[in-house]
């Protein structure tokens, strides 16, 4: 029943891709940043996967990467014990924030004024980017390395997932825990959907959906293999997941039915995210590549072109976003 | 018969040299005004901007000229971890990320040809 999919493969990284993030939709389209163990995070045009630039400066594996909504700033978290903030237009390094251990996660507030970091020193930090020399606000409590820390509820609260098998919700002002979830095993990934306040958590073979405000469970779905990352479509009709068996799975969110599975990667899938317009999803793998997959296979979008049967060829080959006129780069 | 999806082309990969961020892209031109980003105060005075840019150009030019002057000369490099090495300078790459050097004298011997990672260098000196 499933149509075979031709994913678009983005090459360039030389080691496993461990994290990826999309920006919001900007007048120049939307953008994608990838974190890689080769220490060189890359910025790409979101709908085509075209490489725009590489952020050079980290001295170790980059574990986390994020963009602000306007894609004017990027932040990265690395094994060199620093988090860095970058100008995402020029590629210049703007700020280096020294930590005492490997940094795993970075996240901007909606207005890009503050940066949240979390990592192996078990402390969540909030940096005021307008006063970078000032000491960050610290939130302690986790008893193991933090995997992911995200702003939520209009940047008034923080969600964090750590290797201590808990997900905690913190109040930003009081720095106290508001609510906590405990699991039998480590949470492998977390995604926060502000529109609708949904939290997507993966652990073992399970993809779980929670209300981000109350941390009440909405539903759980089990996949055929151990899942490392999942992403909910903006319209909340489906979600995608990937993990140990190298495949990408697409599920119906309402019925929890597995709709499709796609092969393509040559290694475990570490991260998967839907684009802000929901037209595609990107996956990063141990095989060092990013792949872009269509949500509606057969649609003309980005670099995919629908070719109708018979001799009739679709005349609608306009891409939705103008890709910037980059010079022809020889592969 | 189902519609077939074809791919117009593959996503463009990284350029062989340089780190990208094309300054001629529409986004770069629109979002990077002529004000110098490193200035903490937004210099509204256009004369001040011009002066600063002039100074920056002069400094940049003199730096590039030192790279030319250094070619084939013996250079002492002071690096992190209290490392001091000496070598014959060959060339720099376009983004000043690596220096190509020869006859690198290290505590464990002389390396005939080497690439020095610029971010590891604190300072370097040579005789004109």
From TrEMBL, chain A:
SMART domains from the xrefs? WD40 (SM00320)
Output a single Gene Ontology CC term carried by this record. Answer: SMN complex
Q: Where are the WD repeats?
A: 55-96, 96-137, 139-180, 262-294
Q: Which CDD domains match?
A: WD40
- The gene coding this protein: LOC120049323
Stored InterPro entries: WD40/YVTN_repeat-like_dom_sf, WD40_PAC1, WD40_repeat_dom_sf, WD40_rpt
- Single Gene Ontology MF annotation: RNA binding
Q: Its family?
A: Belongs to the WD repeat STRAP family.
Keywords assigned by UniProt, alphabetized: mRNA processing, mRNA splicing, Repeat, WD repeat
The protein's organism comes out as Salvelinus namaycush (Lake trout)
Please give a single GO biological process term from the UniProt record: spliceosomal snRNP assembly
Q: Does the keyword Heme apply?
A: no
The name on file for this protein is: Serine-threonine kinase receptor-associated protein
From TrEMBL, chain B:
Q: Name one Pfam family in it.
A: Gemin7
What InterPro entries does this protein map onto? SMN_gemin7
Q: Which GO terms describe its biological process?
A: spliceosomal snRNP assembly
Superkingdom per UniProt = Eukaryota
Annotated segments matching region Disordered: 1-22
CDD domains assigned to the protein according to its UniProt record, in alphabetical order? Gemin7 (cd11677)
The name this protein goes by in its record: Gem-associated protein 7-like
> Residue span of the signal peptide, if any?
none
Give the organism the record lists.
Answer: Salvelinus namaycush
| Gene Ontology CC entries for this record | SMN-Sm protein complex
């Amino acid at each position: 029943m499933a149509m075979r999919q031709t994913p678009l493969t983005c090459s360039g990284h030389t080691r496993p891709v461990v994290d990826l993030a999309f920006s919001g939709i900007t007048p120049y389209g939307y953008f994608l940043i990838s974190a890689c163990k080769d220490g060189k995070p890359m910025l790409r045009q979101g709908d085509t996967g075209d490489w725009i630039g590489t952020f050079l400066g980290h001295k170790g594996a980059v574990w986390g990467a994020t963009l602000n909504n306007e894609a004017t700033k990027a932040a990265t978290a690395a094994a060199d014990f620093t988090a860095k903030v970058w100008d995402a237009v020029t590629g210049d390094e703007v700020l280096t924030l020294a930590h005492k251990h490997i940094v795993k996660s970075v996240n901007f507030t909606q207005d890009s004024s503050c940066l949240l970091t979390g990592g192996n020193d078990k402390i969540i930090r909030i940096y005021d980017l307008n006063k970078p020399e000032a000491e960050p606000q610290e939130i302690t409590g986790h008893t193991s390395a933090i995997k992911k820390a995200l702003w939520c509820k209009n940047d008034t609260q923080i969600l964090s997932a750590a290797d201590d098998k808990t997900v905690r919700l913190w109040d930003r002002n009081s720095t106290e825990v508001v609510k906590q979830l405990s699991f039998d095993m480590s949470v492998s990934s977390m995604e926060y959907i502000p529109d609708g306040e949904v939290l997507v958590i993966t652990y073992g073979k399970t993809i779980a959906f929670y209300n981000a405000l109350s941390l009440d469970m909405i539903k759980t779905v089990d996949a055929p293999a151990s899942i490392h990352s999942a992403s909910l479509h903006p319209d909340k009709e489906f979600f995608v997941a990937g993990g140990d068996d190298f495949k990408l799975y697409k599920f119906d969110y309402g019925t929890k039915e597995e709709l499709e599975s796609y092969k393509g990667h040559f290694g475990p899938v570490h991260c998967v995210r839907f684009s802000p317009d929901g037209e595609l999803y990107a996956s990063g793998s141990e095989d060092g590549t990013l792949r872009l997959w269509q949500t509606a296979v057969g649609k003309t979008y980005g670099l995919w072109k629908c070719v109708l049967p018979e001799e009739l060829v679709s005349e609608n080959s306009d891409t939705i976003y103008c890709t910037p006129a980059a010079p022809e780069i020889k592969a | 018969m189902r519609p077939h999806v074809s791919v117009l082309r593959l996503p463009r990969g990284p350029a062989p040299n340089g780190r990208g961020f094309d300054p001629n892209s529409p986004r770069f031109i629109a979002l990077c005004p002529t004000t110098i980003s490193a200035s903490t105060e937004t210099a509204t005075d256009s004369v001040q901007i011009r002066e600063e840019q002039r100074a920056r150009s002069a400094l940049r030019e003199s730096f590039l000229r030192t790279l030319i002057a250094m070619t084939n000369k013996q250079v002492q490099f002071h690096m992190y971890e209290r490392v001091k090495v000496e070598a014959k300078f060959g060339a720099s790459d376009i983004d000043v990320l690596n220096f190509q050097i020869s006859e690198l004298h290290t505590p464990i011997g002389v390396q005939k040809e080497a690439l020095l990672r610029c971010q590891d260098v604190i300072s370097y000196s040579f005789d004109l």
